[in-house]
Design goal:
Layout: E1 3-10, H1 11-24, E2 31-38, E3 43-49, H2 55-68, E4 76-79, H3 85-90, E5 96-98, E6 101-104, E7 118-121, H4 134-146, E8 155-158, H5 164-173, E9 177-181, H6 184-196, E10 203-207, H7 215-219, E11 222-228, H8 231-236, H9 238-243, E12 245-256, H10 261-269, E13 274-281, E14 284-290
Parallel strand pairs: 6-7, 8-9, 8-11, 9-10, 11-12
Antiparallel strand pairs: 1-3, 1-4, 2-3, 5-6, 12-14, 13-14
Helix pairs in contact: 4-5
Length: about 290
């Protein structure tokens, strides 16, 4: 049975531990979350989901890192039951308003008050992007603002996950969006979600690692590229992203922590892209570049 790392503590120590471990395991891409579990007692929890084959090693590294910060959190290894955790979490999630969009689960569809916003329904599944994370919400807000007066014709959602960004773009702009991901399961989930949102004829999906797939040559260069993924891959793909960005086009990068800002800016400035905007959402950065 899959395993994960778990610890409980007060808000300050759990949040500090989560921030530190996110930096430590950034290149590994491990999912790390922290959340309140008992308001009266001020109790918070941290969960870290490593690769199945490396749980023991990850546990030892995490313990050593926390010890280096003089943190004595009771970190332990727990078994992860056969549960669709996205489905489970959506049961208690309320709709999220982000700019001109509102993202909601199927459980809220019948009682949703959009208040003039564009509704994006994201089915629970095995892909990142329910709209409730700061990286996604921040990106949606920035898109809402950037697309006032800017009308891109060729658009790429790189690392689409659940396709929440691609769906939002398709509904707002009423034009074709290319959505790609390295993970076949994410693309399956994206296809389901585009149909639910009735934009499957506009959102074209492809399983693609990096930019090697011929679809990029067929659909690009792009006037707008959005990428809500980790800093490591974003740095490595800077030359390809710049190459596939049309002159005058914009690149919107999310999924970044404040300490990663300088490294990302340097990587893209080297490729001829100019930083025009920085936005912070729940401790996460969204960077907007222009070519």
């Amino acid at each position: 049975m899959p395993q994960y790392l778990y610890a409980e503590g007060n808000a300050d120590e759990i949040q500090a531990a989560a921030k530190h471990l996110e930096a430590v395991f950034e290149e590994d891409g491990f999912a790390i979350s922290n959340f309140e579990i008992d308001e009266e007692r001020g109790l918070w929890a941290l969960s870290l989901y490593p690769a199945e084959e490396g749980v023991s090693d990850t546990y030892k590294i995490a313990l050593a890192e926390l010890s280096s910060l003089s943190m004595a959190l009771p970190l332990k290894i727990e078994e992860l039951g056969d549960i669709d955790w996205v489905t489970k979490s959506l049961e208690g999630l309320v709709p999220v308003e982000a700019g001109r969009f509102v993202v909601h689960g199927s459980h809220d569809k019948g009682k949703l008050n959009t208040d003039g916003r564009i509704a994006v329904q994201i089915n629970a599944g095995q892909a990142f992007g329910t709209g409730h994370h700061g990286t996604t919400a921040g990106c949606l807000k920035v898109l809402s603002e950037e697309l006032r007066g800017f009308h891109p014709l060729r658009i790429l959602d790189l690392g689409t996950g659940s396709a929440v960004l691609a769906i939002a773009l398709a509904k707002l702009l009423k034009q074709e969006i290319l959505a790609t991901d390295i993970d076949p399961i994410s693309i399956e989930t994206a296809n389901v979600n585009t149909r639910i949102n009735e934009v499957h004829q506009l959102v074209k999906t492809a399983v693609a690692a990096g930019f090697s797939h011929p679809v990029f040559g067929e659909k690009g260069p792009f006037d707008l590229i959005v990428a809500n993924i980790l800093a490591g891959p974003l740095c490595k793909m800077a030359p390809d992203i710049a190459h596939h960005t049309a002159r005058g086009g914009r690149v919107i990068l999310s999924g970044l922590l404040p300490h990663q800002r300088a490294r990302i800016i340097a990587a893209y400035r080297t490729q001829g892209l100019r930083l025009v905007r920085t936005v912070t959402q729940d401790g996460w950065l969204v960077l907007v570049f222009k070519r």
